[in-house]
Write a structure and sequence with these properties.
With about 525 residues, the chain is an alpha/beta fold. Helix content is about 35%, strand content about 25%. The protein starts with a strand and ends in a 13-residue tail after the last helix.
Length: about 525
């Protein structure tokens, strides 16, 4: 098997305040034809940046300061941009990005985007281009692929958009496909389909694959070799199974420890038999815009959902996107109105509780803290707002309470005057939790609180939530598609599908002995890496 890609001593620098800051150093990899390589590491480790250098997609303030990139025995540094984009990028080397909605052009149809990509690299007729576009959409198993040609990205689901991204990347039969976290934002069932699709197409086309991820479970399924990165440098590399069996670097071992930690049985808090939340046959529907000579279509997001949550309990609601789990959470939290049914908090109808009083009982923690933290305000101001709005306290008392809460979530006093853009993803999520608990609520509704975080940060946030649950005796409703997190953290599971509850019960029973066929499919779709899966020496 001959060399396809050889990168030696790659160094990437960022220009900041007239200084060159090295973000990637001594990056060297060798990839053979048809081989698969996994690159793992936390956010900021340099894994994506190194591949953006290969595809010449680095941010403007970043540049390759040294090193060589040899692809198919050709030094890519010798190619100017025009020839590189015509001969290499999109033709021989293609990339799938993490978020297809931002990578696809929202003002062009799927067909136009595929056609432009193919015609740019191939001297063929439009008819041949359309034929190839339909062929590749069929190959990525996009349902009703002929109709999709005239649709726009926003008209497709997340999984469908990712299939279109794969089609765009593969339309020219590249020799190398780079997949950058292609399944992070997807449900477990869709994730499994996408991973299987990439594996199948790799075999069919005969291409090499570089798979970037922070999920060792996924990497173990798809890669022959693995590279582990930390702080811009490769700390370990080798055959995937060998690295997982016997990691040499403490950082690699730490990644595995965080992953295996979710297998451990978590000590549960005392749960009272008294319900703190009662949800009784709630429904929520949305009316789509009417079409000519047709009545407006009604979509039911939630249908006749009922369940109780006891004092001190953590109950997880799981299901695919569109199953209704987040809608249920928003109704309980009073963020949207239900069409019918009843929600009682501590025996009182939620509509009868004043908003100011409700804030002291129930608080949300959202998936993406960066979009919920105001970028123009300091952390101190953001965390203090619920307190200043709902309680009559002096400025010094408020500051004292904010600093106390920041320390409780693991942030020192120095964060008080910082802004959200000066924090990491894990630190921002700690701020979001601090803001949620400053009024000492009895209920937290956590909507995918760790899905956007690296495995090490995810572990820290789960430990924090567990700690707070014990100290503050909080009841938690967890919305998640990560079954490992659900198993580690929850007492009971509710499984939703098409707006309805199809299964509910003890966490271990639902995960290990699912009754409904959809629940069985959901649990079988999880890519998990367990201690028993590999032999440790």
């Amino acid at each position: 098997m001959s060399d396809l890609l050889n990168i030696q001593n790659l160094e990437i620098s960022f220009q900041s305040n007239n200084k060159n800051l090295k973000t990637v150093e001594n990056f060297s990899i060798n990839l053979n034809e048809k081989e698969s390589l996994g690159i793992v590491g936390e956010s900021g480790s340099g894994k994506t940046l190194s591949m953006l250098a290969l595809t010449r997609l680095l941010p403007k303030q970043a540049s390759v300061s040294s090193g060589s990139i040899i692809f198919q025995n050709r030094n890519l540094d010798e190619l100017d941009n025009k020839n590189f984009y015509k001969e290499i990028s999109g033709k021989k080397i293609s990339m799938i990005f993490q978020e297809p909605m931002t990578a696809l052009n929202p003002v062009h149809t799927i067909g136009k985007q595929l056609l432009e990509t193919y015609l740019y690299h191939n001297n063929v007729s439009v008819e041949k281009g359309i034929e190839r576009a339909l062929e590749i959409l069929d190959a990525v198993k996009l349902p009703k692929y002929k109709q999709r040609m005239d649709q726009y990205p926003h008209q497709l689901s997340g999984g469908q958009r990712q299939r279109v991204m794969i089609a765009l990347a593969l339309i020219n039969n590249p020799s190398l496909l780079i997949a950058d976290e292609p399944t992070t934002a997807l449900d477990v069932t869709v994730q499994k389909e996408i991973i299987q699709l990439i594996s199948d197409l790799r075999e069919t086309i005969g291409m090499a694959l570089i798979f970037i991820s922070h999920d060792l479970g996924v990497v173990s399924q798809i890669s022959d070799n693995v590279v582990v990165m930390k702080n811009g440098e490769i700390v370990e590399k080798g055959k995937t199974l060998k690295v997982l069996e016997k990691p040499n670097h403490p950082y690699t071992q730490g990644l595995l420890d965080c992953l295996f930690k979710l297998e451990d049985e978590q000590k549960k808090n005392q749960i009272k038999d008294t319900p703190i939340i009662k949800v009784k046959e709630i429904s929520k529907s949305y009316k789509l815009p009417a079409k000519i000579f047709k009545k407006p279509e009604i979509i039911y997001a939630v249908k006749k959902v009922s369940f109780d949550v006891n004092f001190g309990e953590t109950i997880a609601i799981v299901g695919e996107s569109g199953s209704g789990k987040s809608t249920v959470a928003k109704i309980i939290n009073g963020l949207i109105n239900k069409d019918e049914g009843k929600v009682e908090i501590k025996g009182q109808n939620i509509e009868d509780i004043e908003i100011s009083d409700r804030a002291k009982i129930i608080q949300p923690v959202f998936q993406d803290p960066y979009s919920t933290l105001n970028p123009i305000h300091t952390i101190g101001y953001i965390v203090s707002r619920p307190l200043t709005i709902n309680e009559n306290k002096s400025e010094s008392e408020v500051k004292e309470e904010v600093i106390k809460i920041l320390r409780l979530v693991g942030l020192s006093e120095e964060y008080y005057n910082r802004f959200p853009n000066q924090l990491s993803g894990g630190q921002r999520q700690r701020v979001a939790i601090a803001r949620a608990i400053i009024l000492k609520p009895q209920i937290l509704i956590c909507d995918e609180p760790t899905s956007a975080l690296d495995v090490t940060i995810q572990s820290q946030i789960l430990d924090l939530l567990n700690d707070l649950k014990t100290k503050l005796n909080i009841t938690i409703i967890l919305i998640s598609h990560d079954i490992s997190v659900v198993k580690y953290f929850s007492d009971r599971i509710i499984v939703m599908y098409n707006g309805e509850i199809i299964e509910m019960g003890n966490t271990n029973n639902v995960i290990n002995i699912p009754k409904d066929k959809y629940t069985k499919r959901l649990m079988s779709s999880v890519f998990s890496l367990k201690k028993n899966d590999i032999k440790f020496t």
